[in-house]
Amino acid sequence: MSGESQRSCVPGMIMRGGSSRGPFFRAEDLPTDRSDRDRVLADIMGSPHPLQVDGVGGGHPLTSKAGIVSASEETGIDLDFTFAQLHPDSASVRTTANCGNMLSAVVPFAIETGMLAAHSDWTSAVVRSVNTGLLSRITVHTPESVLGGARYVAYDGDVGIDGVPGTGSGIDIRFVDTAGSVAATLIPTGRMIDEIALESGQTVEATLIDNGQPLVLLRASDLARTGYETVAELEQDDELKTVLEEIRLKAGELMGLGDVTEDSYPKMTLVAAPAGEAAISTRSFIPLRVHESIGVLAALTVATAVRLSGTIAADVAAPEESTPEGGRLRTLTIEHPSGGIDITLEVDPDGEVTSAGITRTARLLMSGEFHLRNLADVRTEEERKAQP
């Protein structure tokens, strides 16, 4: 759109990335002015409205996301990805956090739009998440077409991920240097456990950690919960949500994130001993709605906390199985309400996590044009509040 404040339609695609879904756009097709860009995204999503009935949003934070992709001008980086979090009940657009699930659709989108050329059976690209500077190498399956020899993104495959029906082609994501993605460091307070005093007089222990996603880890038992509740049970637990929001706001200040009232981080995660053959059980809030599973980067951060002695996660996790002497790879399964997610960690000789990887799937759902209303009628949340 190159600076135009108004246009009847915007080209794009709707893609599922991992267990999330949303529209993807080339950066050049959106307004260069951030305010105008955010109005366009809110219009396309149908926010604010609880069902987002006048847009393509799904009435849930997991389906109120958008991706913006461009070729990177930085040496050694192929693509720049801006993740935008929207909400059904707000016209706000946040681009301060990362999303590992939507990240899995970035390279397929770039190939589909001709932004990136598929060069072999497996095409890799280095992607920078503009939100925080997070770097990842993403590899997708791009076989030759039997008809003309041209390579294409293969979405079909035998890889299943919990929280998504069916199977698809595995997309390998390798993260590097994820510590302190939004907060200043991996452990921003310098303490493995912080004590947070509540207005009720209760004090709750928490691990405040950021290894790709700022998280507040809490023992479910400390809040009189089992950690195995269903999503429906937790969604109806208003008392718990109130307490978690109080903890989140105080944890945000402790983590150096400031006032996080309007932010989607830190994520709140209840942990418990695993119910099955996994490392740990989780129940994640994003931050007010209950996650049907757990975010990729949240799972990565939980897995890291499991390996850090003295954290809440290490305290409740199952003992780690023995590995061959000198082995540097550890695969931890993080349980969530829809099943589990496997996180592969690479550790140095001292056991410190140096990199992490995960396998996701993605799928192109729709390509075409998003038709807009007159943008004069699409107001930001601040403008709505200021309206008499």
Topology (SSEs and partners):
Blueprint: E1 9-17, E2 20-26, H1 34-45, E3 65-71, E4 79-87, E5 90-94, H2 100-103, H3 106-112, E6 122-129, E7 134-141, E8 171-176, E9 194-197, E10 203-210, E11 214-219, H4 231-235, H5 238-254, E12 267-272, E13 280-285, H6 296-306, H7 312-316, E14 329-336, E15 339-347, E16 353-360, E17 362-371, H8 381-386
Parallel strand pairs: 2-3, 4-6, 11-12, 13-14
Antiparallel strand pairs: 1-2, 1-17, 3-4, 4-5, 6-7, 7-8, 8-16, 9-10, 10-11, 12-13, 14-15, 15-16
Brief rundown of the structure:
The chain has 388 residues and is of the alpha+beta class. The protein has 8 helices and 17 strands.
Textual characterization of the structure:
The protein has 388 residues and is an alpha+beta fold. It folds into two domains: 9-170 and 363-386, Diaminopimelate Epimerase, Chain A, domain 1 (Roll), CATH 3.10.310.10; 194-353, Diaminopimelate Epimerase, Chain A, domain 1. It is built from eight helices and 17 strands. The protein has helices at residues 34-45, 100-103, 106-112, 231-235, 238-254, 296-306, 312-316, 381-386; strands spanning 9-17, 20-26, 65-71, 79-87, 90-94, 122-129, 134-141, 171-176, 194-197, 203-210, 214-219, 267-272, 280-285, 329-336, 339-347, 353-360, 362-371. The chain has a 17-stranded mixed beta sheet that branches. It starts with 8 loop residues before the first strand and ends with a helix. Residues 1-6, 322-326 and 377-381 have low confidence and may be disordered.
